[in-house]
Specification:
The complex is a heterodimer of chains A (about 400) and B (about 270). Chain A is α/β, with parallel strands linked by helices and about 400 residues long. Chain A has two domains: about 160 residues, Rossmann fold; about 210 residues, Rossmann fold. Chain A is built from 16 helices and 14 strands. With about 270 residues, chain B is α/β, with parallel strands linked by helices. Chain B has one domain: Aldolase class I (TIM Barrel, Alpha-Beta Barrel). Chain B is built from twelve helices and nine strands. Chain B has a nine-stranded parallel sheet. In chain B, helix 2 runs parallel beside helix 4, helix 2 packs parallel to helix 12 and helix 4 runs parallel beside helix 6. Chain B starts with a helix and ends with a helix. Classes of the chains: A alpha/beta (about 400), B alpha/beta (about 270). The interface between A and B is large, with 39 and 46 residues.
Chain lengths: ~400, ~270
């Protein structure tokens, strides 16, 4: 049965259907409850919203442009393709949108230190940036494997004054960084705010991060009306935890005629053991504060994810996405490492824009569907990040030395 | 009467605190872990917390995290944990066993089947650290039906309002997490712990166990004079890691763990 609205979640306990919730240790519960209480006050406070607006405009550089990707459109020979240029934001990705919102909340709560987990380093850089801007101490947890493949971002964080803590437990990637961030948070509850990097974690994080990211979709709505005089037909975004995807989709959830497509990282393929596609290859479970689709073995142990893109290398997905998947409102499709690499090169060569490997997964899906669609079909792709950070990984994959 | 209630009643009559030991099931492998488990009551453990290995134990420090990874690498599973409990119960029908771990393996096993199989194996209680009162109803009801206590945690961050939420619906005992942090980390002072236990007892008649940061017989003695039970985990588990690093024999590891347990038990005994 179709719902009247897909925008009513979460309920007061933070659930989207059976997903979401607050699965954290008792020590963290009072803090998690106070984050929720303070967030609910902040978003009704005109001075908080005014400060957020001002920073969005003058610090991040919003609104980000909606760009007609003319040569990619011609090359693929079908649908008309627009890019929402989130890679032009300050720090080079959409992550700054929720980092700014959360740091304002941290400041409002009187916290003096922020922590974050990071995969590709984009969220870590965004957090280190806002910490520098507001004079807060900052520690970023990053898997040792990811530090190796994202060296430029590690150095950027250090320049910004953040301490980058290598995480060597487990697979030494994003999920393990999140474990260590939670361990730090529970130890430093009195002065520390955890700036979570995606629409996951305990309630209110999935809701709060979504709200801060929804500016992407709100701007897109206005911009496409201005450019085309109508709403788009298809929206496409890559998905790890799902912050850029929900940010683009959310304001369009109740437009039933608009196709929403989220592209999961399938690594070597969804049928292999080297994938990060939680919807395609996972089952519902509980990790990092929420119930959601997770990659796990038959005993409920979490399986290490794999993707060429460090930012999508996570065995879970935000709980609202699990719900939207089960409702059938958003279609979740996979793209492999190889497909993303091909898309990365095509975008670079046809548009003169080097996309992040994360965003390249979304471009890969556009390459599959655009040629089959009519010329009047409008696609908006969220170009969520820039790819400068990925050139070493790409060179390595292409067998080139730099 | 449940084994937990019987145990606390008996100790109260003797005016001594319960000594609760924690080990990770299947660490470093099933045989050694089972031998340690069976030896614990003889070494002075009154209650045993048996950790259920999980890949992502985000509330635990390095000692227990590594123990979980060792156990999983050696093939640990929920089914194996139940088998270990069953084997233990064949020789010991009085020492309570509380399973401690994370929700995902329980959820994935099937909550009702998990509770039923746990009860059949001889489990007395469950501590699921990432299941706060807001989320534990779906476990609590099947557990109660199976005759298993769901033990709730109180922490230094629990104010009086929060304590009311925690104790309503709690059973077995209250586990007081003595420091804000992960297992095997900082230690709280005995006086702070005494104050916290007294505050919790104003909200409930359940026994109060204290854990986190207790690693010496002296600390155990100090806590024993102020609480109903003293829990030691990381310090015991670390001995397994040390044994493996020194490449000592399985028999040596088992002996070291049980000797240390005995020393701690004497500390608890001397506390009152």
């Amino acid at each position: 049965m179709a719902l009247n609205s897909y925008k009513t979640g979460p309920d007061e306990k933070g659930h989207f259907g059976v997903f979401g919730g607050r699965y954290v240790s008792e020590t963290l519960m009072p803090l998690v409850l106070s984050v929720e209480e303070e967030y609910n006050k902040a978003i009704k406070d005109p001075s908080f919203l005014a400060e957020l607006d001002d920073l969005n405009k003058h610090y991040i550089g919003r609104p980000s442009p909606l760009y007609y990707a003319e040569r990619l459109t011609q090359h693929l020979g079908g649908a008309k393709i627009y890019f929402k240029r989130e890679e032009l934001n300050h720090t080079g990705a959409h992550k700054i949108n929720h980092a700014i919102g959360q740091v304002l909340l941290a400041k409002r709560m009187g916290k003096t230190r922020v922590i974050a987990e990071t995969g590709a380093g984009q969220h870590g850089v965004a957090t280190a940036t806002v910490a520098a801007r507001f004079g807060l101490k900052c520690t970023v947890f990053m898997g040792a494997v990811d530090m190796e493949r994202q060296k430029p971002n590690v150095f950027r964080m250090k320049l910004l004054g953040a301490e980058v803590k290598p995480v060597t437990s487990g697979s030494a990637t994003l999920k393990d960084a999140m474990n260590d961030a939670l361990r730090d948070w529970v130890t430093n509850v009195h002065d520390t705010f955890y700036i979570i990097g995606t629409v996951a974690g305990p309630h209110p994080y999935p809701m709060m991060v979504r709200d801060f990211q929804s500016i992407i979709g709100r701007e897109t709505r206005e911009q496409i009306m201005e450019r085309e005089g109508r709403l788009p037909d298809t929206l496409i975004a890559c998905i790890g935890g799902g912050s850029n995807a929900i940010g683009l989709f959310y304001p369009f959830l109740d437009e039933p005629d608009i196709n929403l497509i989220a592209v999961e990282a399938a690594g070597h393929g969804v049928d292999t053991d080297k994938s990060a596609a939680s919807i395609a290859s996972g089952k519902p479970g509980v990790l990092h504060g929420n119930r959601t689709y997770l990659l796990q073995d038959p005993d409920g142990q979490i399986i290490e994810a794999h993707s060429i893109s460090a930012g999508l290398d996570y065995p879970g997905i935000g709980p609202e996405h699990s719900w939207l998947h089960e409702q059938g409102r958003v279609k979740y499709v996979p793209a492999t490492d190889a497909e993303a690499l091909e898309a990365f090169q095509l975008c670079t060569q046809t548009e003169g824009i080097i996309p992040a490997l994360e965003s390249s997964h979304a471009i890969a899906e556009v390459m599959k569907i655009a040629p089959k669609l009519p010329k009047e079909h409008l696609i908006v792709l969220n170009l969520s990040g820039r790819g400068d950070k990925d050139i070493f990984t790409v060179a390595n994959a292409l067998g080139e030395e730099i | 009467m449940s084994r937990l209630n019987a145990c606390f009643n008996a100790l109260k009559a003797e005016n001594r605190a319960a000594f609760v030991t924690y080990i990770q099931a299947g660490d470093p492998n099933r045989d050694v872990s089972t031998a340690i488990l069976k030896g614990l009551p003889g070494a002075g453990a009154d209650i045993i917390e048996l950790g259920m290995p999980f890949t992502d134990p985000a509330a635990d420090g390095p000692a227990i995290d590594k123990a979980a990874q060792r156990a999983l690498a050696a093939g640990a599973s929920t089914k194996q944990t139940f088998e270990m409990v069953r084997e233990f119960r064949a020789a010991d029908d009085t020492t309570p066993i509380v399973l401690m771990g994370y929700f995902n393996p329980v959820y994935h096993y099937g909550i009702e089947t998990f509770c039923k199989n746990a009860a059949e194996a001889g489990v007395d209680g469950l501590i699921i650290v990432d299941l706060p009162p807001e989320e534990d109803e779906e476990l609590r009801l099947p557990a109660i039906n199976a005759g298993i206590d769901v033990i709730r945690l109180a922490t230094p961050t629990s104010d009086n309002h929060r304590l009311n939420t925690i104790v309503s619906g709690a059973s077995g005992f209250i586990y007081y997490v003595a420091v804000a942090g992960v297992t095997g980390g900082k230690s709280a002072t005995a006086d702070d712990i005494g104050d916290a236990v007294a505050r919790i007892k104003r909200h409930t008649n359940l026994p109060v166990a204290v854990g986190f940061g207790i690693r010496t017989p002296e600390q155990a003695a100090a806590i024993a004079s102020r609480a109903d039970a003293v829990v030691v985990g990381s310090a015991i588990v670390s001995l397994i890691e040390q044994g493996l690093e020194k490449q000592t024999s399985d028999a040596n590891i088992i002996e070291n763990v049980l000797n240390f347990t005995q020393t701690l038990a004497k500390g608890v005994l001397s506390g009152r």
